[in-house]
Amino acid sequence: MQATFISTCLLIFSFSGALLATSVLEQDIKKHLSKQEYINVEFGISIKTPATNMHINDTQAFVPASIQKLLLSYYMIDTFGINHRFYTNFYYDKEHNIYIKGGADPTFQTNQFQEIIRKLKKKKIDQISSIILDPSIIERSPNEYRNKAHYYYAKAEGLNLNYNTISCTLNQKTSLLETIPSTGYAKLDLRYSSLKLSKKKASHPYTFLQKRSDHDNYVIKGEISRHDFNNKNLLFRVSQPSIFFGTVFKEECEKKNIKTIKKIEIRHFNKKKKKKLITIKSKPLHQQLKTLNQDSNNMVANCFTKYAGKSETNPKGSVGNGAKSIQAFLLSKLNINRNQWRIKDGAGLSKENKSSSNSILKVLNSIKEDKQIFNTVFLSMLNPEQDPLYKKLDIPKHLDIRIKTGTLTSSGIHNMAGYIINKETDAITEFAILTQSNPKEKSYYKAELTTPILDLIIQHTL
């Protein structure tokens, strides 16, 4: 009887303590948000600890930006499995035409062409009649970003190479700019640029691309400092991924003395009267999610979204069909309807995407319910201890934290969501922080609004 009484008292004390801790956390966050500097900033915050929940404006609709990639990750794992792979198939015929059927692999790299070349050598094919590319598994992207050169706008198609980007590098011997890969697809126009390698900061030169029938011209205007290479200011997108893929493949073959007679073609083909040369498998999905979430790679996100839209009723995947598939997943899995989370794309680029912190918290909680899915998503997210942007955070050794940010600086959007695991107790805290400010009144840098709130959550998780 006495033992039961003591246990009941301990339970009540523990529950009261949890409520008190949550109440103090809520008070501290509201006190922080009441500062004059945040008077024109809207916040939507949802926090779930093992004991209770805390919400501030939790049903208000915000633009989730790249937080959307967490939902996309969940959809992809739940639908296709953590070990799902994408396949790129290479065929040949008796005339030595090479046929390449894309499988929407977002991770294909230049060095993988060597496997195909070895197969060609083994088949004693030292001359290719023509290269036929079929990227029709998903919809080809329109040129919606026109002459924007930045890698942030990289397209996603059925055949992709090097995340559909061209990197500029400095040849240390010649002090000249070169591209990686070195290819005739990319031509640099440096007439209006100058190297200022001694500058201590990035110069952010103005860049744009000029689309041509078989290549892209990249125009760089202004000063170029050494820091521009490190800051990805000279990492460019390609406007025609399939032609880029075919051109680099042709050039890699030529380096090994395998010549191509005719031009590259892009068209659908069937496998009739063709022999399989080789199938290139992508990395498993769980490895690709790290690029999606830690690098917040929009090209990978768009590739996944299009692939999500491919079905028996919609044989060609598109961003629109993919958004519908993910929307249906939200409704069937979590009973979250379009009024609670509106999806226009999987990357989070569209400002028509709308969600609340409460809906995001529901997704985080649902992910947590499946151990395999949770471990996969958790490890794909950013560890703030490994990013200098979060060096001011005082993170105790017994806490393991992963975050995903969503930022559209020019629109005043700075979001963060993630998990905190107490390694001593295995307790998990989930949180979603959404913000909307007016960049014309004040511009905030990435995570400036959300990191102090994360710091408060950490302090109250101890």
CATH architecture of the largest domain: 3-Layer(aba) Sandwich
Number of strands: 20
Strand content: 15-25%
Structural class: alpha+beta
CATH class identity of the largest domain: Alpha Beta
Strand arrangement in the largest pleated sheet: 2-1-20-19-18
Number of helices: 11
Please tell me the overall pLDDT: 92
Shape verdict: globular
For the biggest sheet, the summary is: 5 strands, antiparallel
- Could you state the CATH homologous superfamily of the largest domain? DD-peptidase/beta-lactamase superfamily
Distance between the termini: 34 Å
The helix fraction, in percent, is 25-40%
Radius of gyration from CA coordinates: 25 Å
Overall number of structural domains: 2
Uncertain stretches of 5 or more adjacent residues: 1-20
The CATH topology of the largest domain is what?
A: Beta-lactamase
Task: Kindly describe this structure.
With 462 residues, this protein is α+β, with helices and mostly antiparallel strands. The protein folds into two domains: 26-82 and 288-459, 3-Layer(aba) Sandwich (Beta-lactamase), CATH 3.40.710.10; 87-281, no CATH class. The chain contains eleven helices and 20 strands. The strands form six sheets. Strands 2-1-20-19-18 form a five-stranded antiparallel beta sheet, sandwiched between helices. The chain has a five-stranded mixed beta sheet with strand order 14-6-4-3-15, with helices on one face. A three-stranded antiparallel beta sheet has the order 8-7-12, with no helix packed on it. Strand 3 and strand 4 form a beta hairpin. The radius of gyration is 25 Å and the shape is globular. It starts with a helix and ends with a helix.
